[in-house]
Write a structure and sequence with these properties.
With 146 residues, the protein is an all-alpha fold. It has nine helices and no strands.
Length: 146
């Protein structure tokens, strides 16, 4: 069994549910939930988001962490540090921080297409998102030192 399957099974039990009840709540076939709970397969990102929405924040953090640990090579496991965020931290950010960045002018359509493909991968593939998060952390550290 995988870390995710163990965590999913624990979270289902903590809520007092069974796989069939979770499947019904999520609108996902029970057979799919069972494959995840037994470690035969892992959910895709869109299904994972639906399942996460049915659990509290603490359980969401545990599920995401276990999912990422299963997906990442062991060498990247140190990057997975999921903790609950204080929502007011995000409220303090200026609105331009939350705005979608515009690409620099003068980039070719081909290069823009490549950038968008990498951005989609970073959004959909946890390993790539973790690598970008690590780059961002390193950049922030350098900016702070200067």
């Amino acid at each position: 069994m995988s870390r995710f399957s163990n965590t999913l099974t624990d979270c289902i039990a903590l809520r007092g549910w069974n796989e069939s009840q979770l499947a019904s709540l999520c609108g996902i076939p029970q057979s799919k939930i069972n494959r995840w709970a037994t470690g035969k397969t892992a959910p895709k990102a869109d299904s994972l988001l639906v399942v996460l929405s049915k659990f509290d924040e603490s359980q969401q953090a545990k599920l995401i962490r276990s999912y990422l640990l299963d997906e990442l090579p062991d060498a990247f496991a140190h990057l997975v540090n999921i903790s609950l965020a204080d929502p007011c931290i995000f409220a303090e950010q200026p609105t331009e921080y939350l705005a979608k960045p515009k690409p620099p002018e003068g980039l070719s359509n081909e290069l823009l297409g490549q950038i968008y493909r990498v951005a989609e991968l970073a959004r959909d593939v946890p390993e790539i998102a973790a690598i970008f998060a690590e780059f961002d952390r390193l950049i922030q550290r350098r900016a702070f030192k200067s």
